[in-house]
Amino acid sequence: MADALVFDAYGTLFDVHSVQARCEEFWPGKGAILSQAWRGKQLEYTWQRSLMGRYVPFSTVTRESLEYACAALGLVAGPAEKEALMNEYRNLAPFPEVPGALGRLRGRKLAILTNGSPDMIDPLVRNRGMEKTFDAVLSVDELKVYKPAPAVYELAVRRLRVPREKIGFVSSNCWDALGAKTFGFTVYWINRAKAPVDRLGAQPDQIVGGIDEILL
Questions:
Q1: Letter string b/e over residues 69-96, b meaning 16 or more CB atoms within 10 A of that residue's CB
Q2: 135 catalytically annotated
């Protein structure tokens, strides 16, 4: 049995596409495509910056990917629109099953391990009333490299003081789940989209449709 469960934040606990409604307010008919383009470029930038050794905080990545997505779609975003959309990331909605599932999983150490910089993830956890739920909220900002770098998963081992073989890792991002599996965690992939497993030379230990379906 896992002595600790470590959760990815964006897309796993919190729905990154809950920003879509605000995008739609500014650009009717474009909310969904902007949300998708924004998220896609956000992930690309984390991987590319890690490979280039040019780290910047996730808040900067998120703002720059929003600017790119708007430019690519021909949407004019002024300072007010950008700030409003950035603020949405500090108020993302949790997936419906998350609060109840986290309550059921207590009794072991619970932590977040996220690409999110403290200026984004700390307000989000606080705004959603989860600050007492987790024993630790760990950010890659401490290391200045993004997932799936092995050093990120090692951070959870060091900070929680739990051996890797006793840590369960939960992510909806398959590349993240497989990065954690390669590192040595027991991995639970939340496959809400019913997608195939990425071809990265590893397999999750469990594939489930939501956090409430995890079997320990």
A1: bbeeeebebeeebeeebeebbbebebbe
A2: no
